[in-house]
Specification:
Blueprint: E1 3-9, E2 15-20, H1 26-29, E3 40-49, E4 53-60, E5 65-73, E6 79-87, E7 96-104, E8 112-116, E9 122-128, E10 132-140, E11 146-156, H2 166-175, E12 190-191, E13 193-202, E14 204-212, H3 221-242, H4 252-267
Parallel strand pairs: 1-7
Antiparallel strand pairs: 1-2, 3-4, 4-5, 5-6, 6-14, 7-13, 8-9, 8-12, 9-10, 10-14, 11-13
Length: 284
């Protein structure tokens, strides 16, 4: 049975990780958040600067994989996300992994059109009142130890008030899969909710790149590599300058611990505005 792991990122830069051990038992195995009781050896930011981005790692013993996500805010505008999966030592030699990335637009009248260019990657173009024109592209990286089996794009139009239930919608789509490969029907096009499914075997890596009409230039995978490296070096240098260790705490072990602690502190800060759904049933 294929292993399923999903990555979610909305156009408004929401980012969440979803995991499931088995595609055909998604009701019990599909994960919405990282929970310690679901076979996690650990998870969190290893370095993170609110202004430029950082690196997040999930050590998932239940799914036999370590998932690394590198988020970077481009100096030219836009942002990029690199997703890297490293099978753990107890993973099967040909264990297959499926990742879902999905995009949703929550405002009435806003649409997004996606196309699956296969070797040219996946491109999605849209327009919102706040972002103007924007595009999202998804590109696979070649790996000596990994194989990309197939990519499928499922474009849907759902009620705007149901966009936040994307997990339930995805679960419903998975239940309708009849192929032995466990792949969503490839129907790319216009809609306000798009699921991108990727199947891999072994180690893999892919990029999600976002650019808007306010960006000075379109972000590329090469630029993401360069800016992620610069962001990591800048974090290291600034941390040493501001939080210079002293006494017996000058070893690499303490430096990593301190950086992880600070990164998860600032990485856990959220800013929200606008209307929020509240369940008032318990107050009745």
């Amino acid at each position: 049975m294929p292993t399923v792991k999903q990555v979610y990122c909305a156009v408004s830069v929401y980012q969440t990780l979803f995991f499931a051990r088995n595609l055909f038992t998604c009701d019990s195995d599909l994960r919405h958040t990282c929970e310690q009781d679901e076979g996690m050896a650990g998870y969190g930011w290893t370095n993170y600067d609110i202004r430029i981005g950082g690196t997040h790692v999930v050590n998932d013993t239940g799914n036999h994989v370590d998932l690394v996500t590198q988020f970077s805010k481009s100096t030219a505008g836009g942002w990029g996300l690199r997703v890297t999966s490293l099978p753990r030592t107890d993973a099967a030699s040909h264990e297959r992994t499926t990742i879902f990335f999905y995009i949703g637009l929550e405002m009435v009248g806003e649409t997004l059109e996606c196309s699956n260019g296969l070797s040219e990657g996946i491109t999605c173009a849209g327009k919102t009142s706040q972002l103007g024109n924007f595009n999202v592209s998804i590109w696979d990286h070649q790996s000596d130890n990994g194989t990309a089996h197939r990519t499928s794009v499922r474009s849907l139009t759902v009620a705007t008030e149901n966009i936040w239930q994307a997990k339930s919608i995805l679960s419903g789509e998975l239940k309708r899969i009849t192929s032995q490969e466990g792949v969503l029907e490839n129907q790319a096009g216009q809609g306000n909710l798009h699921f991108v499914q990727k199947q891999f075997e072994g180690t893999f890596e892919f990029d999600v790149l976002f650019s808007s009409n306010s960006s000075l230039q379109t972000l590329t995978s090469d630029a993401l590599t360069r800016e992620s490296s610069q962001a990591h070096a800048e974090f290291q240098n600034r941390f040493r300058l501001v939080y210079a260790p002293s006494g017996t705490f000058q070893t690499e072990e303490y430096a990593k611990f301190s950086q992880h602690l600070l990164s998860n502190l600032v990485g856990g800060i959220g800013y929200f505005h606008g209307k929020s759904r509240v369940d008032a049933s318990s107050a009745e």
